[in-house]
Amino acid sequence: MATEYSSRGFLTIAVVPWGDQWKKMRKVMASEIITAARLRSLLDKRTEEVDNLVRFIYNQCKSNSGSSAVINLRLAARQCTGNVIRKMLFNRRYFGEGRKDGGPGYEEVEYIESVFTVLRHLYSFILSDYLPWLRPLDLEGHGKIVSEAMKVLNGYNDPLIDKRIKEWKDGKRKEPEDLLDAFILAKDSEGKPALSVEEIKAQCTEMMFATLDNPSNAAEWAMAEMINQPEILQKATEEIERVVGNQRWVQESDIPRFNYVKSCAREAFRIHPISPFNLPHVSNADAIVSGYFIPKGSHVLLSRLGLGRNPKVWDEPLGFKPERHLKDGCIEEVDLTETELRFISFSTGRRGCMGVALGSAMTVMVLARLIQGFSWKVPSNEANIDLSVSENDLFMAKPLHAMAKPRLPGEQLYPPY
């Protein structure tokens, strides 16, 4: 139910059954949207938003009658990833006026909450998924919740998309500036528009779903673990100082040289996945996996937890230990993906996430900017950060709040608003 609602009747790629529609959308995404050249062309937009993340936190520190402040890192991380994908899709940070300190306005908060409402229900159990004739009864109330959340998202997205399509039709636009333009200009083999308006709208929304949760969740959990273990945070800070120094900000071009920071992000993916299962799919042929016979038509849920915690395939103690990912000191071997299925960060295989490079860059940039720009510690009224897991999902039970203090010399390094 939730996947059908979120994809406007299975018009997208991630949650669409294998078949002609999936092949069509995958071809467009691979050839027109998620390409290396396209992502390079949008680098400035991503950089602008991680600059804004620093600005937002810095302004809170300065407005708190001192040089430090308790920061809601969940809010900061989610809004940063939301800003990045909004800027890449629609070339805008805010749907409304936003806040003068760089933070989200009412519209952005409502939008992000609706995204996570839908995501939460993609993985939830609903009886009508197995007994379709029960769907009109909406016994669990999930149908109403998801449809209302989608109304909020579509209410923000659709007018922007309709306006942009009209601008191209009327000749008011000449050059593409974001991914929405790329969707509109994509052509099929006959030179006709590759996607319908409904497909464009559905895929834009799905890209929001795909980029918001994983990077922000990994950054929040990694920061929580590192603040509780200051020696790990210090090692990450020292690496950034060694690679970048303290006279400029971390850029995406620096990421290949961040061995330890990437290990921290990878460790967050390992023990704090965004969900207990990968996106559910149905097997289209009989198969044997790890000695188990999986008949055609089976509803397959690949666990993100069991493999990562199995000592037979991960011969290391539990706990947040980034060093476990360092292999002979080789930077190239530290990657946020896991091809051996010891854990799943961005899914894998033919149905794996097509935006692995983008998701990895967003994760590392958010984490690196937080570490580089500020000194972090447990709020004065707490002994340590509570690492309890929520009862309803795998987020932290409470949003991460931590004391931040600008650590770079000179106010001129912090982006003015």
TrEMBL record:
It holds the Pfam family p450. Signal peptide: none annotated. It comes from Gossypium harknessii. It comes from the Eukaryota. SUPFAM superfamilies: Cytochrome P450. Keywords: Heme, Iron, Metal-binding, Monooxygenase, Oxidoreductase. Belongs to the cytochrome P450 family. InterPro entries: Cyt_P450, Cyt_P450_CS, Cyt_P450_E_grp-I, Cyt_P450_sf. Heme binds at C353. PANTHER family: CYTOCHROME P450 77A4, CYTOCHROME P450 98A9. PROSITE patterns: CYTOCHROME_P450 (PS00086). Gene3D superfamilies: Cytochrome P450. The keyword DNA damage does not apply. This is Uncharacterized protein. GO terms for molecular function: heme binding; iron ion binding; monooxygenase activity; oxidoreductase activity, acting on paired donors, with incorporation or reduction of molecular oxygen. Its cofactor is heme.
